[in-house]
Write a structure and sequence with these properties.
Aminopeptidase; 11-stranded mixed sheet; 8 helices; repeat; Acyl_CoA_acyltransferase; mycothiol synthase activity; transferase
């Protein structure tokens, strides 16, 4: 695993974009659900030339994968070998492969093997200099915002997360283990995890929504530390109360107070309403991730 992590760092430095998703990196380090596989490509002398993560799920629907080739081993057929192995693992099922950064080499390989774009994920960014450092958003009567309490708020948050992202292919299916792994990460900070409650949170109160922020260390998303709107979700029954804007303002102010200069977020390109909203809030398109799909 140390060799794979070193390869990921080298690819990030060379391409200016992280080659794997957070989920793939966590599963590399901690394992994952049944049906997952780690695939290594090595040179004849044993040097690591590439890595892939395959997710087979429950054996139905599309299989998914991500892979990266070491910068010094590119244009030598390593990517083709990894993709061939991933297709073998997928068998007679459609395969989706994420290409982070939408780099020319990835698009060339995918289209040459008959893959088509199935999903496009935008990374958007904005400066934090113009953020109100002390927002005092107007909240509905009986609603208060508190920070997350590890060991207390997991169940309520998972319930609202599942409802808020019921149609999302990854976010809405998070489990308690998914949450636990992230709470154990060095970047986790409950002071940047804001929850909006109606009533007493310790006495039958109802969680309405949350804004979980994240801070990427230098070298992760660029030479400087960068904040992230990590998860912003509102319960469907609480839509229209202005909680999304209120929680966003509180989270951005927190990131600015940390001394950060920029904040990023991810949104599906075809979610035009959300993209328009973020653009009006000062976010601009920064990078693109593409999910390529091979249909049988």
């Amino acid at each position: 695993m140390p060799a794979v992590l070193a390869l990921l760092r080298a690819a990030t430095a060379a391409d200016g974009v992280r080659p794997l998703s957070e989920d793939a990196e966590l599963r590399l380090q901690h394992g994952g659900p049944a049906g997952g596989r780690d695939v290594l490509a090595r040179t004849p002398d044993g040097e690591l030339a590439g890595y892939a993560r395959f997710e087979g799920g429950d054996g139905t629907g599309d299989a998914e994968a991500e892979f990266v080739v070491a910068p010094g081993a590119r244009r030598q057929g390593v990517g083709r070998c990894l993709l061939t192995r991933l297709e073998e693992l997928a068998g007679d099922r459609p395969l989706r492969v994420w290409a982070h950064g939408d780099l020319p080499g990835s698009a060339e390989l995918a289209t040459g093997r008959g893959y088509t774009r199935a999903r496009v994920l935008l990374q958007m960014r904005r400066d934090l200099a113009g953020v109100d450092p002390d927002p005092r958003p107007a909240l509905p009567d009986g609603v208060r915002v508190h920070t997350f309490r590890p060991g207390h708020d997991e169940g309520a948050w998972l319930r609202v997360n599942a409802r808020a992202f019921a149609s999302h292919p990854e976010q809405g299916s998070w489990t308690r283990e998914d949450l636990r792994l992230r709470e154990a990460e060095p970047w986790f900070d409950p002071a940047g995890f804001f929850l909006a409650w109606r009533g007493d949170r310790d006495d039958r109160g109802t969680l309405l929504g949350s804004h979980w922020t994240k801070v990427h260390p230098p070298g992760d998303e660029g030479p400087e530390a960068v904040g992230e709107v990590y998860v912003l979700g509102i319960d469907p029954d609480a839509q229209g109360l202005g909680l999304g804007r209120a929680l966003t303002d509180l989270g951005l102010a927190h990131l600015r107070a940390r001394g950060l200069g920029q904040v990023l977020l991810y949104v599906d390109e075809d979610n035009t309403a959300a993209v328009t909203l973020y653009e009006r809030s000062g976010f601009t398109r920064h990078a693109v991730d593409v999910s390529w799909r091979r249909a049988l």
